Amino acid sequence: MSSWFVWLLIVLFCIGGVEVKTHFLPSINELELVFISNHYILYSITMFLYFFFFVLILVGLAFAIAWAITRKASFSWIGQDVLYVKILLYSSQYYLILLIQVATVLLCCAFVYDIFWVFLSPIIFHQSVMIAVAKGNNSGGESIPMLLRFPRLTDPWGGYDMIGFGDILFPGLLVGFSLR
C-alpha cells in the first residue's frame, strides 16, 4: 500500500473525528422551536450555540492535528482511540439495520473476511496481509489509523493489541437492531 494512500486515510480519519463532535449536540433548529415565543432569548441562545459549535470544532481540530503530529509517539494510541470511538459512536447512530437477515449476512461476511486475511493469507502471500497493513510494514512505516490500539503492558517489546473498525461496528449495529 502506498504511503500517499495511507496519508489520505489519516487526513480523512482526522476530518471524521473533528466533524463527528458536533453531531452529539442538539441541533439549533430543535432549540429554536422551544424558544420561539421570545425572540431575544432565541437570538442569544442561537448565537451562543454557533459560538459553542465553532469552539468545539476548533478544539476537535487541535486534537486531531496534535494526534497527527504525534501519531508515532508511544502515547499516540490514546488520541487515536478517542477519535476512533467518536467515529464508531456516530456510525452506530447513523447507520441502522432494518432486517435481521442483513445483520446476519454482514456478520458472516465480516467473519469470513477476517479469517481469510488474518489466518489464510500467510499461506498464499507468506505474511498476514491484515497485520502487515495494520502495522504499516509495506507502506514506509505508516499505519492505517482505523483500528483500536492498546499497549501490552507486560510485553517487553512494546507491542499493541489491535481490533479493527468492522470488528466493533458490525456487532454494534446488530446490538442497535436488537434494542429497537
UniProtKB/TrEMBL annotation:
GO terms under biological process: membrane protein proteolysis
PANTHER family, per the entry: SIGNAL PEPTIDE PEPTIDASE, SIGNAL PEPTIDE PEPTIDASE-LIKE 3
Protein name: Phosphatidate cytidylyltransferase
Domain of life assignment: Eukaryota
Keywords, comma-separated and alphabetical: Hydrolase, Membrane, Protease, Signal, Transmembrane, Transmembrane helix
Transmembrane parts of this sequence: 40-69, 94-120, 157-179
Entry annotated with the keyword Transmembrane helix: yes
